[in-house]
Amino acid sequence: MLLSTGQRVVFIGDSITDCDRRGAAAPYGDGYVDLVRSFVTAGYPELGLSWVNRGIGGDTVRDLAARWEADAISTAPDWLAVMIGINDIWHGFGSHPQLAVPIDEYATTLRDLLRQAVDRTGCRLIVAEPYLIEPDRDEPQRAQTDRYCLAAREIAAEFGAVNVRTQDAFDAVLRSTVPADWADDRVHPNRPGHAVIARAFLEALGYEPAGPLSMNA
Predict the structure, then answer these.
(1) Is 214 a residue whose pLDDT tops 90?
(2) At 208, phi and psi to the nearest 5?
(3) Is 176 a catalytic residue?
Protein backbone atom coordinates (compact mmCIF):
# COMPACT_ATOMS: atom_id res chain seq x y z
CA MET A 1 0.00 0.00 0.00
CA LEU A 2 1.47 3.32 -1.09
CA LEU A 3 -0.45 5.56 1.33
CA SER A 4 1.17 6.28 4.70
CA THR A 5 0.03 7.21 8.18
CA GLY A 6 -1.65 10.59 8.60
CA GLN A 7 -1.59 11.60 4.96
CA ARG A 8 -4.14 13.81 3.22
CA VAL A 9 -5.50 12.47 -0.07
CA VAL A 10 -7.14 15.04 -2.34
CA PHE A 11 -9.21 14.14 -5.42
CA ILE A 12 -9.92 16.72 -8.13
CA GLY A 13 -11.78 16.39 -11.41
CA ASP A 14 -15.19 16.67 -13.05
CA SER A 15 -18.65 15.23 -12.32
CA ILE A 16 -17.32 11.68 -12.03
CA THR A 17 -15.30 12.87 -9.05
CA ASP A 18 -17.91 15.36 -7.80
CA CYS A 19 -20.92 13.02 -7.42
CA ASP A 20 -22.95 15.49 -5.34
CA ARG A 21 -20.15 16.06 -2.84
CA ARG A 22 -21.51 19.59 -2.28
CA GLY A 23 -25.09 18.37 -1.80
CA ALA A 24 -26.81 15.41 -0.20
CA ALA A 25 -23.68 13.25 -0.49
CA ALA A 26 -21.32 15.79 1.14
CA PRO A 27 -18.42 15.84 1.68
CA TYR A 28 -17.09 12.88 -0.33
CA GLY A 29 -19.79 12.36 -2.95
CA ASP A 30 -21.44 9.02 -3.62
CA GLY A 31 -19.06 7.77 -6.31
CA TYR A 32 -15.62 6.27 -6.68
CA VAL A 33 -13.98 8.72 -4.25
CA ASP A 34 -16.16 7.52 -1.39
CA LEU A 35 -15.65 3.90 -2.39
CA VAL A 36 -11.87 4.28 -2.37
CA ARG A 37 -12.02 6.11 0.95
CA SER A 38 -14.30 3.48 2.48
CA PHE A 39 -12.26 0.48 1.40
CA VAL A 40 -8.93 2.00 2.38
CA THR A 41 -10.31 3.07 5.75
CA ALA A 42 -11.74 -0.39 6.38
CA GLY A 43 -8.61 -2.18 5.18
CA TYR A 44 -6.07 0.10 6.85
CA PRO A 45 -7.81 1.80 9.79
CA GLU A 46 -4.49 2.37 11.53
CA LEU A 47 -3.36 4.86 8.86
CA GLY A 48 -5.68 7.64 10.01
CA LEU A 49 -5.87 9.20 6.56
CA SER A 50 -7.85 12.33 5.72
CA TRP A 51 -9.77 12.64 2.47
CA VAL A 52 -10.83 15.65 0.39
CA ASN A 53 -13.04 15.74 -2.71
CA ARG A 54 -12.71 18.76 -5.01
CA GLY A 55 -14.57 17.51 -8.08
CA ILE A 56 -16.89 19.88 -9.95
CA GLY A 57 -19.31 18.65 -12.58
CA GLY A 58 -18.72 19.85 -16.13
CA ASP A 59 -15.06 20.73 -15.64
CA THR A 60 -12.44 20.54 -18.34
CA VAL A 61 -8.75 20.99 -17.75
CA ARG A 62 -9.30 24.71 -18.40
CA ASP A 63 -11.69 24.87 -15.45
CA LEU A 64 -9.21 23.02 -13.27
CA ALA A 65 -6.59 25.63 -14.14
CA ALA A 66 -8.93 28.42 -13.06
CA ARG A 67 -9.44 26.93 -9.60
CA TRP A 68 -6.14 25.13 -9.08
CA GLU A 69 -4.86 27.48 -6.40
CA ALA A 70 -8.01 27.24 -4.27
CA ASP A 71 -8.91 23.61 -4.80
CA ALA A 72 -5.56 21.88 -5.24
CA ILE A 73 -2.61 23.89 -3.93
CA SER A 74 -4.33 25.31 -0.84
CA THR A 75 -5.54 21.90 0.31
CA ALA A 76 -1.91 20.94 1.03
CA PRO A 77 -2.21 17.38 -0.27
CA ASP A 78 0.23 14.59 0.46
CA TRP A 79 -1.38 12.80 -2.48
CA LEU A 80 -3.22 14.58 -5.29
CA ALA A 81 -5.43 12.43 -7.52
CA VAL A 82 -6.46 14.02 -10.81
CA MET A 83 -8.97 12.59 -13.27
CA ILE A 84 -9.81 15.03 -16.05
CA GLY A 85 -10.40 14.93 -19.79
CA ILE A 86 -13.84 13.41 -20.28
CA ASN A 87 -15.54 16.77 -20.91
CA ASP A 88 -12.55 18.01 -22.90
CA ILE A 89 -13.31 15.19 -25.36
CA TRP A 90 -17.09 14.91 -25.01
CA HIS A 91 -17.81 18.53 -25.97
CA GLY A 92 -16.28 17.86 -29.36
CA PHE A 93 -19.03 15.33 -30.04
CA GLY A 94 -21.94 17.27 -28.55
CA SER A 95 -23.78 20.54 -28.88
CA HIS A 96 -20.97 22.76 -27.55
CA PRO A 97 -17.91 21.94 -29.67
CA GLN A 98 -16.36 25.30 -28.81
CA LEU A 99 -15.86 23.99 -25.26
CA ALA A 100 -13.79 21.01 -26.38
CA VAL A 101 -10.13 21.18 -25.39
CA PRO A 102 -7.65 20.15 -28.12
CA ILE A 103 -5.28 17.41 -27.07
CA ASP A 104 -2.16 19.59 -27.20
CA GLU A 105 -3.76 22.16 -24.90
CA TYR A 106 -5.02 19.38 -22.65
CA ALA A 107 -1.56 17.88 -22.27
CA THR A 108 0.22 21.21 -21.82
CA THR A 109 -2.26 22.42 -19.21
CA LEU A 110 -2.33 19.16 -17.26
CA ARG A 111 1.46 19.00 -17.21
CA ASP A 112 1.69 22.59 -15.96
CA LEU A 113 -0.87 22.02 -13.20
CA LEU A 114 0.87 18.90 -11.96
CA ARG A 115 4.23 20.69 -11.95
CA GLN A 116 2.76 23.50 -9.87
CA ALA A 117 1.32 21.02 -7.39
CA VAL A 118 4.56 19.11 -6.95
CA ASP A 119 6.78 22.19 -6.75
CA ARG A 120 4.57 24.03 -4.28
CA THR A 121 3.28 21.24 -2.04
CA GLY A 122 5.71 18.35 -2.48
CA CYS A 123 2.77 16.02 -3.03
CA ARG A 124 2.80 12.70 -4.80
CA LEU A 125 0.50 12.32 -7.77
CA ILE A 126 -2.17 9.94 -8.97
CA VAL A 127 -3.15 10.48 -12.60
CA ALA A 128 -6.29 8.66 -13.70
CA GLU A 129 -6.97 8.45 -17.41
CA PRO A 130 -10.28 9.58 -18.95
CA TYR A 131 -12.56 6.92 -20.39
CA LEU A 132 -15.60 6.17 -22.52
CA ILE A 133 -17.66 3.09 -21.71
CA GLU A 134 -17.62 1.92 -25.31
CA PRO A 135 -16.00 -1.32 -26.54
CA ASP A 136 -15.66 -0.28 -30.20
CA ARG A 137 -12.23 1.30 -30.42
CA ASP A 138 -13.00 2.62 -33.90
CA GLU A 139 -16.04 4.60 -32.75
CA PRO A 140 -14.92 8.25 -33.12
CA GLN A 141 -15.34 9.39 -29.53
CA ARG A 142 -13.73 6.23 -28.22
CA ALA A 143 -10.81 6.64 -30.63
CA GLN A 144 -10.35 10.22 -29.44
CA THR A 145 -10.55 9.11 -25.82
CA ASP A 146 -7.76 6.62 -26.40
CA ARG A 147 -5.53 9.43 -27.65
CA TYR A 148 -6.18 11.49 -24.50
CA CYS A 149 -5.59 8.40 -22.36
CA LEU A 150 -2.18 8.01 -23.93
CA ALA A 151 -1.37 11.67 -23.28
CA ALA A 152 -2.35 11.32 -19.61
CA ARG A 153 -0.34 8.11 -19.32
CA GLU A 154 2.78 9.73 -20.74
CA ILE A 155 2.42 12.69 -18.38
CA ALA A 156 1.98 10.33 -15.42
CA ALA A 157 5.23 8.62 -16.39
CA GLU A 158 7.06 11.96 -16.63
CA PHE A 159 6.14 12.72 -13.01
CA GLY A 160 6.58 9.22 -11.64
CA ALA A 161 2.88 9.34 -10.76
CA VAL A 162 0.64 6.45 -9.92
CA ASN A 163 -1.24 5.81 -13.17
CA VAL A 164 -4.85 4.61 -12.99
CA ARG A 165 -5.86 3.09 -16.32
CA THR A 166 -9.58 3.69 -16.03
CA GLN A 167 -10.33 2.89 -19.67
CA ASP A 168 -8.57 -0.46 -19.36
CA ALA A 169 -10.72 -1.23 -16.31
CA PHE A 170 -13.93 -0.65 -18.26
CA ASP A 171 -12.60 -2.54 -21.27
CA ALA A 172 -12.07 -5.56 -19.02
CA VAL A 173 -15.67 -5.65 -17.78
CA LEU A 174 -17.04 -4.90 -21.27
CA ARG A 175 -15.73 -8.24 -22.48
CA SER A 176 -18.79 -9.86 -20.91
CA THR A 177 -21.23 -6.94 -20.56
CA VAL A 178 -22.64 -3.97 -22.46
CA PRO A 179 -22.12 -0.25 -21.80
CA ALA A 180 -25.66 0.20 -20.41
CA ASP A 181 -24.75 -2.13 -17.55
CA TRP A 182 -22.39 0.56 -16.26
CA ALA A 183 -23.82 3.92 -17.43
CA ASP A 184 -26.84 5.23 -19.31
CA ASP A 185 -24.74 7.63 -21.38
CA ARG A 186 -21.36 5.81 -21.56
CA VAL A 187 -19.88 8.48 -19.25
CA HIS A 188 -21.68 8.90 -15.91
CA PRO A 189 -21.40 5.56 -14.11
CA ASN A 190 -24.00 3.90 -11.95
CA ARG A 191 -22.84 2.49 -8.61
CA PRO A 192 -21.26 -0.65 -10.13
CA GLY A 193 -19.55 1.59 -12.69
CA HIS A 194 -18.06 3.68 -9.92
CA ALA A 195 -16.92 0.44 -8.31
CA VAL A 196 -15.00 -0.37 -11.50
CA ILE A 197 -13.18 2.96 -11.20
CA ALA A 198 -12.58 2.52 -7.48
CA ARG A 199 -11.15 -0.95 -8.00
CA ALA A 200 -8.71 0.45 -10.57
CA PHE A 201 -7.58 3.06 -8.05
CA LEU A 202 -7.19 0.51 -5.27
CA GLU A 203 -5.15 -1.83 -7.46
CA ALA A 204 -2.89 1.03 -8.58
CA LEU A 205 -2.31 1.97 -4.93
CA GLY A 206 -1.37 -1.57 -3.97
CA TYR A 207 -4.42 -2.19 -1.80
CA GLU A 208 -3.88 -5.45 0.07
CA PRO A 209 -5.70 -5.39 3.42
CA ALA A 210 -4.15 -7.68 6.00
CA GLY A 211 -6.10 -10.92 6.35
CA PRO A 212 -9.80 -11.72 6.66
CA LEU A 213 -12.00 -10.16 9.29
CA SER A 214 -12.53 -12.42 12.26
CA MET A 215 -16.17 -13.36 12.84
CA ASN A 216 -15.39 -14.88 16.24
CA ALA A 217 -14.28 -11.85 18.20
Answers:
(1) no
(2) -145, 80
(3) no
pTM: 0.95
Q: For 65-101, what is each residue's pLDDT tens digit? A: 999 999 999 999 999 999 999 999 999 998 889 999 9
What does the pLDDT read at residue 212? 55
- Determine the 3-state secondary structure of 88 from DSSP: helix
Between CA 129 and CA 93 the distance in angstroms is 19
- Active-site residue, 188 included: yes
Q: What is the pLDDT of residue 213?
A: 54
Position 95 scores a pLDDT of: 84
Provide the number of structural domains found in the chain: 1
Helix, strand, coil fractions of the chain, as percent rounded to 5: 50, 10, 40
User: Which position among 14, 71, 188, 194 bears the catalytic label?
Assistant: 188
Active site residue 146: no
CATH number at residue 155: 3.40.50.1110
Cis peptide before 27 (omega within 30 of 0): yes
Question: Within a domain: residue 3?
Answer: no
Q: Which of 15, 18, 34, 71 is catalytic?
A: 15
Residue 184: which domain range?
8-204
Q: Which of 112, 181, 184, 185 is labelled catalytic? A: 185
